[in-house]
Write a structure and sequence with these properties.
single chain, 284 residues, five-stranded parallel beta sheet, 8 helices, globular
């Protein structure tokens, strides 16, 4: 391990880029849930600037109208390493590349793989390609916005996908989140091959939470396929038809309550303040 290594990046608000000696440019871009209203200005800016677009086919399709006339390379699911290497190689040839990802590329996204590969290739900030992670709206943001205010206190995020992480480790994390009374966001709750994971997770939570704990199931947030159910922990598996890779599940903590179909997680103001003044209460 190298100790005492300092890297200083000078940020320019005018150019909106880090000022470094660079070759090509690689933008790892989060396009949010897919609707252009929920993409950042910076995401649209770098996609417009890019000559080449690389990404999983479904994610590329989300920005179809923004990439007309560009070189586009589409990949199937599970080809993350191939598309990451291709994006890096294009940038090393001096090209400007956007590697697109839904949600935020730094949350279960592609930027982690990019930096792992760059580290193996001994990439250096001041000599190599310019790399920028362009953050986007993740599922935990978009889904919580649709169902009330479920993330007002400490929360945990766990993915049910055991493709890269052993299920035994995921179980430990689920157990810790349940025991710690965290509101818990679950990504990738189920797939054709993954059936038992969410059931196991439900059973773990029922050891620490009441059966009527509010739970939200949000499929395709802000997309044409959007479906939302606010139910209870006990009835979580009653909606198997909604569970899949574009679904997010949010499990409330011991304080979360359901009000008119909204999950509300109190921040604690009621213990310090009078939320509704007496004068207001008296008005009929």
């Amino acid at each position: 391990m190298t100790l005492g290594l300092e890297i200083i990046l000078y940020y320019s608000g005018i150019s909106n880029v880090y000022m470094q000696n660079t070759k090509g440019r690689l933008y790892v871009v989060g396009v949010g849930p897919g609707h252009h209203d929920h993409m950042t200005f910076r995401a649209k800016q770098v996609i417009e600037e890019s000559e080449i677009i690389v990404g999983y086919d479904t994610y590329v399709s989300l920005v179809e109208d923004l990439i007309e006339g560009k070189e586009v390379y589409r990949y199937a699911m599970t080809q993350e390493v191939d598309r990451a290497n291709q994006a890096i190689e294009f940038a090393e040839k001096g090209r400007i590349v956007s590697l697109v990802s839904s949600g935020d590329p730094g949350i279960y996204g592609m930027v982690g793989l990019i930096y792992e590969i760059l580290a193996d290739r001994k990439w250096k900030h001041d000599e190599g390609i310019y790399v920028e992670c362009v953050p986007g709206v993740s599922s935990l943001n978009s889904c919580s916005a649709l169902i009330g205010s479920p993330l007002m206190t400490d929360f945990a995020v766990v993915s049910m996908s055991d493709l890269l992480v052993p299920w035994e480790i995921i179980v430990k994390r689920v157990e810790a989140a349940a025991f710690g009374d965290y509101v818990t966001v679950i990504y990738n709750p189920a797939s054709k091959k993954r059936i038992h994971q969410l059931k196991d997770t439900k059973d773990i939570f029922l050891k620490y939470r009441k059966p009527d704990t509010p739970v939200a199931i949000v499929k395709g947030a802000f997309r044409d396929s959007q479906k939302i159910v606010v139910t209870t922990l006990e009835k979580l598996l009653d909606y198997n038809d909604m569970l899949g890779m574009i679904t997010t599940v949010i499990i409330g903590n011991s304080s979360t309550f359901n009000y008119n179909g909204l999950m509300i997680n109190p921040r604690g103001y009621k213990s310090k303040y009078e939320l509704v003044p007496e004068t207001t209460k008296s008005i009929k």
